[in-house]
Each structure stands twice: as structure tokens, then as C-alpha cells.
């Protein structure tokens, strides 16, 4: 990695006796888009607020652009922030909202007007400068909030669950818009969300947080395909977990659902010990398939037609496996109660330590 | 009509009669200064009385100063309590309620003991000092109304997030309060202000005991010496108070559009 632009160095934060963030380390490159992903209460928002300066770390240092900002007030940090609740100033027009930061900084009227027009153009609301926030839809308000944050040319852009108050359609279009504006301006961005789809689709890197700890830091591809912990595997995407007993750790032979399966890799457990095998729904096929030599017999117990994808639940012994197949207009979807086999490749089996 | 509704109407009419009959009687009496005919003679007399103009002008000025000091004291306090010290809210609410519990006469005697001309802070040693003391006394009297109005206004906006949004854009405290918080609670501040105005215009105890030429003592003095004029004055005082109430309504209707009042 190049010289990091933001460095979070052993950040800890406790509110009274509750440790909210533990030993958090992260370097962020200039222009990078990083997401903090995790369930509510995992410390992601607190970490973001420490970067913004609204909270002070109990210990650890925060540096932005090589400057230690740990003890600076929020208004000294040159940071742009977008809040979940929009937080537009209700008494100001859209243009005054966007120009607020520059006005506070003492910019000239002409300079402010020019920049406001430019920002309105970027968020594609050029005609809305004279409106008041309450006259805009939620999606428009959040775009104005983004423009307001960016108008002051901040070093860093922080977004705190900016889309969670919006409805699904707008959420998808706005996240693409945010990402494209971010790319165009090349601004280093931290995005907090509990929505894995948002994090996976937008980020250069994702930090998955759980109980105040960064469980895994990686690209969306790594996070999804090679989850480092059980929590990451289950929080990001859907996961089937098979309980298995190790027969031979050297060759990776295990016994699951009454069948012997050979995983062709060394297992981190001794013979006779229990182990969990995890499978993503999309790596499991209904019926035999070339290249997926491991098979388990089962019965179709549930079929959900999701449009382009059909999600099927198959009962194998006493456990249920979810699997996804693409919709095929020429073939009828599987029937409930149908006897079948599920197949998968040993390479797709994730063995994650508990 | 159902019997229940008749009962409600009877109660309503009785209540209105209880409120309005004395007022109508006062008004009627005030019109009878000229024997045998209704006239506004009493009103002409008091409105042309230079002492009426002086005392009313004095009280109006004191009311404006009281509003100014009250706003400067209450808005930052209520804001700070909401933002940083929410656990102190019950304490502050209790303090702001004290003027309703402690009679004005007790407060003013306390002032006279504390700030008399031989004390450490001799407010009553000069006229200007006494004026200032009177204004502070009125700020205290108006505190329950002012604080509650402003606090309600603050409840309607997301104080914390708006503050943080302004702060991260580089704004400092005075800017945040003046440009973001105050405009958004303006309606609440104005209703508090008009209530304060109505209280100060009619106040007697403090002004009288501090011996200032206010409207309240003038009314009392007139009432003790004349027959028809005090009735006219009472009607005028009522009209002023009501005008304040109407202004609260009007202002909140034509107020700048905010989150409090969308559309």
C-alpha cells in the first residue's frame, strides 16, 4: 500500500464500563472507499464518530494526511460528513445549506455561488437551489446533504448509514451515484452500514466489525469468498453449515449426514473431533453436476421463486441446505417433496474455526 | 340534539358567561362617563393623559429589554441542557418553576435586602440600577414561560444532529446558535416573548416596591382615585394582552418554513 492517508492506531473506546471499540487498527489509502460493516452495536458508528471528532478515543491515535488529529475539534478536521437523518438545516434553502460551510469559512459570495452551482450540478439537482429541505424527497435531501459535505472540499468524506432511511429502489440508485461522485472526486471515503449488499457493491475494502473488534479487513471478494471468522461468514451472505466428524485429518475425510466426504486438504482438527463445514448457496447444485463430485441425498422441502434466482431448501438428514439455481423458463422449478441429491466441489467448502 | 350535547353547551355558555360578563360589565361601565349617553370619554381622558403615555412607554421598553435578556439567557441554556447535560433538565425545570411558587413580593423583598444602596451590589442606589434590577426581576418572573416555550421548540428539531452537522462544516458555537438553533426555534421564542410582554405590562408588585414609573402602579393609582377611567384602563390592558396572544398565533402562521411547520 502507498503511504496511508488515514491511520487509526490501536483505537480503544469505552463508555463507562462498556468497551465499545477494541484495539482497532486500520490504514486507508488516499482515494480509497472503505466500508465499516456490522450489526448495530458493533462499534462501527462510534469508530466513525471518533474519526469525525465527535468522540475522543479512550486510547490510541488518529492521523489524517500525516497530521495527528486525535485531540482536534470536529470543526478543525476538514472532514465532510453525511448523517443518516440527513440533518439539513431546515431554516436554510438548499443553496444556503450547501454554501453553509464556505460561508462559515468566510468565502466570498461569488465563490460560494459558483461552488453551490457546481455542487448542484454534480448531484443533478440544478433547479432546486431555492427550495427548502422539507420540499424535497428523502433521496433528494440526502443528495443535498452529500453536496453540503463535499462543498468545503474536505480531506475525508464520512457517511453514517446514509441510505438506511430511504426506500429500496432509491437506495440502489443513490449508492451507485454516491460511488460515482466519490470516484470522480477521488475523495477518501469511509462508509458505515449494516447492509452487506451496500458494503459489497460499493467498497474497495470492507472492515467487518463485531462487538467492537475488526474481525476481517479485505476486498468484497475476499470477505465473501474467504471469510476469516465464523461471524464474517454468517453476517456476509447466506451460509449453510454442516456439522461433520473428522475421520482422517490428513486427507480431509469427514463424515456428514451419513456420508463420507473427502475434502482433499488438511483439517485443523484431530480424528473423531467435530468440525463445521460451510457452503454458500450458489456453490451447491441440485442434482449431480460435473466438477462437483461430493453428493448428499435429500428431499426438496421449500422452493422460493425470487425472479432471476430460485432458492431451494433441501432436507439432508436432519439439516436443511439452501441452494440457488438460476431461473430457466424452459424447465419447471423443483417440486416440494421430490427426492434429489445436492452436489458441491470440495474446493468450495469453507472450514472455519469456531 | 342529544342530552349529552345540551349539557356540554350549557356548561360552555355558563363558562363563557363567567369569563365575559364581568368584562362586558366593565366595558359598559367605562362608557358611561358622560351622564345619560354612551361615549368613549373615559378612553379619551386616559389616552391623552401624559402619565399614561409615560408609564406605558416605560413598561414597554422594560418588557423589550426583559425579552432580550431572557432570550439571551434561556436559548443557550436550554440548548446546552438538551445537548450536553440532559440529566440536569429536571433541576433546571425546577428552578424555572420557582417564580410560580415564590410570590413576587417575596422575590422583591429579597432583592431589596440583597441589592440595597448599602450592600455589596447597590443596584437600588441609582435609577438606572433600579431599572436593571427590575428587568432582571422580570426575567425571573417570565422564566417559567420562556424556558418552556424554548424547550418545546428545541424538542421539535434534532438538536444533536444539526449541531454536529454544523460543527463538522467548521462552525463554532456562536455561529451554530445564531444561524442554526435560534432560527429554528424562533416561533417558540416569539411566543415566549409575547407572554413575557403581557406579564411585564401588567406587573404591579415589583415595579411598585422598586418605585419605578411602570404601567401597573399607574393603573393601581388611577383605580384608587377615579371611577370611570380605571374601567377603561382595564379594558385597554385586556386588549393589549389579547393583542399579544393574537400576535403569537399570527407570527406562528407566517413564520419562515421550518421543520416545525412544513408547508
Question: What strand line-up does the widest sheet of chain A have?
Answer: 6-7-8-3-9-10
Order of SSEs of chain A:
EEEHEEEHHHEHEHEEHHEEEEEEEEEE
Which quaternary structure do these chains form? heterodimer
Largest interface: A-B, 28 and 25 residues
Count of individual beta strands of chain A: 20
Give me the secondary-structure category of chain B: mainly alpha
- Share of helix among residues of chain A? 10-25%
Kindly report the average pLDDT value of chain A: 88
How far apart lie the N and C ends of chain B? 38 Å
Largest sheet: number of strands, sense, barrel closure of chain A: 6 strands, mixed
Classify the helix fraction of chain B into a percent range: over 70%
CATH architecture of chain B: Orthogonal Bundle
Q: Give the CA-based shape of chain B.
A: globular
Please render the helix and strand layout as text:
The complex is a heterodimer of chains A (354) and B (263).
Chain A: E1 6-15, E2 18-28, E3 33-37, H1 44-52, E4 59-64, E5 67-68, E6 79-82, H2 94-104, H3 109-122, H4 138-151, E7 156-160, H5 168-185, E8 188-193, H6 196-202, E9 205-210, E10 213-218, H7 220-225, H8 230-235, E11 240-248, E12 253-256, E13 259-262, E14 274-279, E15 285-286, E16 294-305, E17 309-316, E18 319-326, E19 339-344, E20 350-351
Parallel strand pairs in A: 3-8, 3-9, 6-7, 7-8
Antiparallel strand pairs in A: 1-2, 1-4, 4-5, 9-10, 11-12, 11-14, 12-13, 14-20, 15-19, 16-17, 16-19, 17-18
Helix pairs in contact in A: 2-3, 2-4, 3-4
Chain B: H1 3-30, H2 41-48, H3 50-83, H4 89-101, H5 104-115, H6 127-155, H7 159-168, H8 173-184, H9 186-202, H10 205-209, H11 215-225, H12 228-254
Helix pairs in contact in B: 1-12, 2-12, 3-6, 3-9, 4-6, 6-9, 7-8, 9-12, 11-12
